[in-house]
Amino acid sequence: MKKAIRNNLFSFATSELSQDAFICWCLNWFNDGSKPVLQEMAKKIIFKLTNVKEFVVKKIVSVDIFRQFSRKVKVDNKSIHVKIDVLVIVNNDIAVIIEDKTYSNEHDQQIERYKKGLQEIYKDKQLSKIITVYWKTGFYNDWDKVTVSDKKITGEDVKSLLADYVNESEIIKDYFDCLEANLQWQEEHKKYWLPLGVPWWELNIVNYHIAQYTLLREIFPEKRWDISTGRYEGEYEIYMGSSFGRPWTQTVAKWGKFSNDEKKEDWYKLFWRIDSDKGGPYISFRFYEWGYSKNTAERHKNLYNELSDLMEKIINAWPDNGLNLVNALRKNKGNYNEATFFHYYLDFSHWDRDKDIVIKTIREISDKFVERFTREVEPEFLEYKKEHAEKNS
């Protein structure tokens, strides 16, 4: 006999708007005394968002909830469209801005803009405090870590907040079960080398950012990343994207500029990328130049050739460790703003045996390359740049 599948509301209501509604529903139990246990749940969540110490003496007497709060306002003569997922006003004087995400990221400093806009909207209300909350139940990547907010709520935080109330409501149980399944999915798909025995195009690392991120962080631990707030793409910050639906994940190992003019955007970067092509999943080391054009083609090709030659020298001198690193060397005409000089295919068929040596080797190649580039190539190239500029002046 076929086992009945539980009909779960949140198996269908999967959007961020649905999560907005659930957050509002949970908080609004403060205003409904028909179920005291759920009213206590609402208080518990409010304490988590606003800091419980604020209410040790001062009780919560009112909670007003606004879903999809939307206003246009001028701040410093600039128009701001304030579009807050969930706005909570506690005791008429504390505002809580909740930016709610499931799998997407905050962008364009939404939270900071909304805070400034709300300050203007409520300037006559004498708010004592505006608290910003970044509520994301999906996988936290580096973009989430640099998002600026007073508080960050993770999927594990939400699970902890709701755990005592699962049997009090079918809605909570539905949401909790889906959240728990999603958290389990994340843990399973961090295992980039799985599933075992499948064609390479079915591997986690080929299909999911979370898998690519996990391997890249194992190679370049977070302690290498000088974490800064905002959207600056710092060295060893991991960022992600896709090409024609195919996920890729990258991290910068070295920045450089072609001039000392801070206003001129003529920079280049050396970065590692995890991606896949017709040969399977790979990790590559690449050179990218911002603003590449016909006018900079000679400069670009010269630097790319230096990079390719340096990588060849390093690999040819590398001790034989069975990884066939020579096959990863790449050299082309360097006719594009992005060019690869190292392209290593990842084979997970014996990953329990090969993992440590692969990770250690990629890390050491990166460190050796950046060190030698900075010491040997960069000064020489900058001198070439200076001479080239003088010749054409």
Q: Which key phrases capture this entry?
A:
10 helices, Trna Endonuclease, Chain: A, domain 1, alpha+beta
What can you see in these coordinates?
Strand 2 and strand 3 form a beta hairpin. Helix 5 (155-162) runs antiparallel to helix 6. Strands 1-2-3-4-5 form a 5-stranded mixed β-sheet, sandwiched between helices. Strands 6-7-8-9-10 form a 5-stranded antiparallel β-sheet. The chain has 2 domains: 9-183, Trna Endonuclease, Chain: A, domain 1, CATH 3.40.1350; 193-392, no CATH class. The chain is α+β, with helices and mostly antiparallel strands. It has helices spanning 16-27, 36-50, 110-121, 142-145, 155-162, 170-189, 204-207, 209-219, 297-316, 351-392, and strands at 63-75, 78-90, 94-101, 129-136, 151-153, 238-243, 246-257, 267-277, 280-289, 338-345. It is built from 10 helices and 10 strands.
